[in-house]
Design goal:
31% of the residues lie in helices and 19% in strands. It is α+β, with helices and mostly antiparallel strands and 343 residues long. 45% of the residues are buried.
């Protein structure tokens, strides 16, 4: 009887390990609670390490050695696979390469409303020499304050903004998304369907900003709703909308809080992309496995849910997850560098 129970438990654990290691194979990457369980590869590695330790302790009891050995093998395979996937996406965060005349730096940072001051945001933008800045949960007033500080620092940027329900007094900061773009990239304008919400993410806004002259990249400041149990449908719809903003052949840069890791995006890529035809910059430059949320956890066990992605018109050359401030946002900022691909 106990032998049968042990076999059953081993089989169930093996199935659970396979799902958590490669949820996209089972088409479960956007299914509650698998979505939440696979958000951090680092936590999965720690969980499998704990299971391995338990299995080793159980092996001290002779009647349980066969069962414990099976658990140990599963834990080694599951933990090793998750560690390998994280390592392949990158767990280093080195400084960006030297910026050239044709390089474009893109900063993505969910500032959690007023948790980060305009002064700190402006200082980060100047220090990182950013040309495009996506700031989910940053209000228009704060964006304008940032722009004034940037102009005084000799780093001018134009402010663009989208807000859901502007008729609601003192609405939550999560209903706003601000984008700053360097004048060196040309004149930009928020497209009307993004501004009025007829084509946008569901509960929190993204901003689609297009070049007035049609020559530069379309910039999408992304903010999708978090995948809470009651928001799973809206979250999945948001991710599909973001992927649709990046069709093959178009010049597009996505940046912001996707509330999703590369595992969750597995079925949304086309033409070699991760979201539509857009390719994740951090995963291609060595830091795609580092967590950007929450700042209360070390980068190695956090969830990499903030991204910068670009179409084939851009070659990723560097990325860095910036340290979070203890009194600031619960998201770390992600800075990346892109090089123009000559036709």
């Amino acid at each position: 009887m106990f032998r049968l129970i042990g076999i059953l438990l081993t089989v169930l654990l093996a199935i659970a390990t396979a799902i958590l290691t490669w949820p996209q194979f089972f088409h479960l990457e956007r299914t509650f609670p698998i979505t939440q369980a696979v958000a951090s590869r680092g936590i999965l590695v720690l969980a499998f390490a704990a299971l391995l330790l338990l299995a080793l302790l159980l092996m001290l009891a002779r009647p349980l050695r066969g069962f414990a050995a099976s658990l140990a093998i599963i834990a080694l395979l599951g933990g090793g696979a998750s560690a390998a996937i994280g390592a392949m996406r990158g767990i280093s965060s080195e400084a960006l390469p030297a910026k050239t005349a044709t390089s474009v730096r893109v900063l993505a940072w969910n500032t959690a409303g007023e948790a980060v001051s305009a002064e700190d945001i402006a200082t980060t933008i100047v220090d990182q020499k950013a040309d495009i800045v996506a700031l989910p949960e940053t209000t228009e007033a704060v964006g304008e304050d940032i722009a004034l500080k940037l102009r005084a620092a000799g780093h001018p940027m134009w402010v663009h903004h989208v807000q859901f329900r502007p008729d609601v007094p003192r609405g939550p900061d999560s209903w706003q998304t601000t984008v700053l773009i360097s004048p060196g990239l040309g004149d930009y304008s928020v497209i009307p369907s993004s501004s009025d919400g007829t084509s946008n993410t569901s509960s929190v806004p993204s901003a689609v900003v297009m070049p007035v002259d049609g020559k530069g990249p379309t910039v999408v400041a992304v903010h999708t709703v978090a995948p809470r149990e009651d928001e799973m449908t809206g979250w999945s719809s948001d991710l599909r909308w973001v992927a649709d903003q990046c069709p093959a052949g178009k010049n597009v840069i996505l940046a912001g809080d996707f509330n999703a890791t590369l595992d969750h995006m597995a079925a949304l890529g086309t033409d070699g992309g991760d979201m539509g035809a857009c390719r994740d910059v951090a995963a291609r430059t060595g830091s795609g496995g580092l967590g950007t949320w929450p700042t209360s956890l070390p980068e190695l066990v956090g969830a990499p849910i903030d991204h910068v992605m670009a179409t084939a018109q851009w070659r990723p050359s560097g990325s860095e997850v910036l340290p979070g401030s203890p009194s600031g946002s619960d998201h770390r900022a992600l800075i990346t560098q892109l090089e123009r691909v000559t036709p």
